[in-house]
Amino acid sequence: MLETYKSTKTSCDKFFDSFKLTERGDYLKVSIVDFCENPDNTRAQKVYSEFLHTFRLRGLEELIEVMKKFELASKGIIPKQRDHYIHSVNVFIFGLTNYSVNINVRKNFEKSCNYPDMYPTIEEEFLYRWGMASLFHDVGYPLEIAFKTIKEFTTMLISPNLFFDDSDIMKSREKRFSEDIVAVLQFQNLDDVLHINNINPLEKFEIEFYDKYPYLKKGMPINVFQAIAKNISDLGFADEQTIHKKLEESLKKGLTEGMLDHGIYSSIILLKWLNESFFKSNWNPAYYYIPIVNAATAIFLHNAYKYIFMVPPFNLAHLSIDKDPLAFLLILCDHIQETDRVSYGYVKKGVKFTCSSIKIDDVQLKLSLDITKSEDKKIATTTIKDMKSSINGILDIYSVFESFEIELNVI
Prior knowledge:
Elements: H1 3-17, H2 27-37, H3 41-54, H4 61-73, H5 85-101, H6 103-112, H7 122-135, H8 141-158, E1 162-164, E2 170-172, H9 190-194, H10 206-212, H11 214-218, H12 224-234, H13 240-256, H14 262-279, H15 286-309, H16 325-336, E3 355-360, E4 364-371, H17 377-394, E5 403-410
Parallel strand pairs: 4-5
Antiparallel strand pairs: 1-2, 3-4
């Protein structure tokens, strides 16, 4: 077992021992322990299944399995692609570890999520929100894979790269590059893509519900970006209308320029699927409009914060834990888990880190990565440097830790 899994297993035990789940007891905990002992696809699937079963959302397993199916089916078609199935479970577990051992994460999450109908314990509330954010942050990847596949083929189609050798025989170079946009994605009706239904409380609970949540009585969001923009505005980033306009502009720009951010589409997918679930049930709408929208917002921001909110017209600073604990944690865990992922593309580059260990507590985050002497130390050093630079380029990491270090060991 990797040292990382030993420490995360211990931290997850500590997390689940600190409270009692409303439903299904230790099933989720057991699935996580099993995964930490042998992290493979079968045990990853069990973690997904137990989490969704715990919160009565088993219909969402289809999204996860489609993501895995697309990844495996396309591994020989596009140049570069990595695992997201096991990766998302690792992100989920690493987030539980952070919550369990770091007081700054716990305090800031607790301050951010006080609402009348929250779960009986702050730990279960965190588990619900964090599980939805971490396990579903890459479910939009099949769309990006499909688009990359079309782009790869159309680039080859319109960009022949032929040459003649000394024997006057025509040959083709595999490497191609086109400066022109060779393919774009279009939706027949973008309003339909972004539409969500109003989720009203049962008539007998209406007065009580709207007394608790008067802002929802004024008008529920009927658009995914409207819901996300409201949540981001409540974080103090900017006014809701400006944010909503920018989100839609960014999506449309990506469509016309042939650029897909799977994080944006993952947030859309999660909000639409959960909207359907709540719309067809008698569940309390608060559990959609507050924790689920918060999770979807974190998913949206895990890629888009840097290129939307750190540039004009917002020019926001590095994201600190107090601004949005869930988004902060998702960005951090997603980046930290970069080095232990299977590559599926037909172009294989980089180095293989043979072992990893992590030390994390209230004051420090230290990740140690090992390579064998046969690996390229220069590439490994660059990979680690880029990882740390990427994290420091987005997050105010010192709002959580006094010390942040990533080290390389050659064994």
